């Protein structure tokens, strides 16, 4: 009988598990153990003798995996797998399965929502009302913050996977011109791509939709920010490490860039002294959402269906 341990069920909304017929267990005979959250020092004890681990963000290092000889499969309830030492898993004969594409629609729509928020200064208008700014006006309206057209502006997309392509489709429907960035440091561009630096110079809005790896770490930094228009906006719904947070915070404070909207930070949850959190508390040109772009009801449903399918398929293929 398979022993399955869900290390961080609390990383997903409880509603997906409570809704009738929305969550099923694997078809094979199994023992199911679940925890809301698991800290790094609890992984080995909780997952000992487990054949399958289900996890969303729990860190699984080489040392941890080496101490789990029964482990055969890691089922990641996400697309990104940067919390798992994939090289160690491969060497140890542990399969790793993720769920690509489950949140394409939700994340893409979140990007578009952020474009509207930034272009129409929605955060600034909202902050005004907390101090009765409108109520104190002598006429029906006032004009403190810019409202800019989305149609006709240029969207630069970094990362042309499923989400990047869907963002492009939605943006084009709004009348935006879309350009795709070639990977940084690549001299010869693929068809349909422009050099990375040129995209930064041309774009009115820059959307980061690429994975985090050694080549994309701090893709947006003090140097690359100088290439951007002072009227440009940066949107990140991918991974926090794509941005040098101190460099972006300084650029926002000095208005060397018009604004940013972020659904992810380098450390999550962030430290209270995170430089971007400090900017968000004092300036309306930064919108931060707590890594929730992927959490639409349909995305969560698909995520758990595919996760259980991954386990069922592995069992069928390997005869457990």
Automatic annotation (TrEMBL):
Transmembrane segments: none annotated. Keywords: NAD, Oxidoreductase. InterPro entries: D-iso_2-hydroxyacid_DH_PdxB, D-isomer_2_OHA_DH_cat_dom, D-isomer_DH_CS, D-isomer_DH_NAD-bd, NAD(P)-bd_dom_sf. It comes from the Bacteria. It holds the Pfam family 2-Hacid_dh. One of its GO terms (molecular function) is NAD binding. Residues 112-293 form the D-isomer specific 2-hydroxyacid dehydrogenase NAD-binding domain. Residues 33-317 form the D-isomer specific 2-hydroxyacid dehydrogenase catalytic domain. NCBIfam families: PRK06932.1. Belongs to the D-isomer specific 2-hydroxyacid dehydrogenase family. This is Glycerate dehydrogenase.
């Amino acid at each position: 009988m398979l022993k399955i341990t869900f290390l961080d069920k609390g990383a997903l909304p409880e509603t997906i598990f409570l809704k009738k017929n929305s969550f099923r267990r694997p078809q094979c005979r199994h023992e199911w153990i679940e925890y809301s959250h698991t800290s790094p020092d609890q992984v080995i004890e909780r997952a000992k003798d487990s054949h399958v681990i289900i996890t969303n963000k729990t860190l699984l290092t080489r040392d941890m995996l080496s101490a789990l000889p029964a482990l055969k499969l890691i089922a990641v309830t996400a697309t990104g797998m940067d919390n798992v030492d994939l090289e160690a898993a491969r060497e140890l004969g542990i399969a790793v399965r993720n769920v690509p594409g489950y949140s394409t629609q939700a994340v893409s729509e979140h990007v578009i929502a952020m474009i509207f928020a930034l272009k129409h200064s929605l955060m600034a208008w909202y902050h005004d009302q907390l101090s009765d700014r409108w109520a104190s006006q002598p006429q029906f309206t006032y004009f403190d913050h810019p409202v800019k057209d989305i149609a006709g502006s240029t969207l630069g997309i970094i990362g042309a996977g499923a989400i990047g392509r869907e963002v492009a489709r939605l943006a084009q429907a709004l009348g935006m011109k879309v350009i795709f960035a070639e990977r940084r440091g690549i001299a010869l561009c693929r068809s349909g791509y422009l050099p990375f630096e040129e995209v930064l110079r041309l774009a009115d809005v820059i959307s980061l939709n690429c994975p985090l790896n050694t080549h994309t770490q701090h893709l947006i930094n003090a140097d690359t920010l100088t290439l951007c228009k002072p009227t440009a906006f940066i949107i990140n719904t991918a991974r926090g490490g794509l941005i040098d947070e101190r460099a972006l915070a300084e650029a926002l404070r000095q208005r060397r860039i018009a604004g940013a909207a972020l659904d992810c930070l380098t450390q999550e949850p962030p430290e209270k002294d995170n430089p971007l959190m400090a900017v968000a508390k004092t300036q309306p040109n930064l919108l931060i959402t707590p890594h929730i772009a992927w959490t639409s009801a349909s995305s969560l449903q698909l995520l758990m269906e595919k996760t259980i399918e991954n386990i069922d398929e592995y069992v069928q293929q390997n005869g457990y």
